[in-house]
Specification:
Blueprint lengths: L2 H29 L10 H26 L1 H4 L16
Helix pairs in contact: 1-2
């Protein structure tokens, strides 16, 4: 596995973890008042975690769209196979 592929996989896992964390927090907040008792501005707290979820999903989507090594079949995930940036 190339360095580019390792970084790609690390980013995928990072964004998937951020998505899972935000979903877990929001699920707790929606289903249990115990988890939100110390927060005075509940709407802001919900919005903060929804924004984190949205950002991570967007980043994961863009990463897979523009730098997917499986889709690009053999082209570098970092350069997306552009001329002048080929691996040797």
């Amino acid at each position: 596995m190339s360095a580019g592929e390792l970084y790609y996989e690390a980013l995928v896992k990072k964004y998937e973890a951020e998505i899972a964390g935000a979903k877990a927090t929001l699920t707790t907040y929606f289903n249990s008042s115990v988890g939100i008792g110390e927060h005075s501005d509940l709407l802001e707290e919900f919005d903060k975690h929804l924004e984190a979820l949205s950002n991570a999903e967007d980043k994961l989507e863009k990463l897979k769209k523009h730098f997917n090594p499986v889709k690009d079949l053999g082209r570098s995930p970092v350069t997306n196979g552009k001329v002048g940036h080929e691996e040797g």
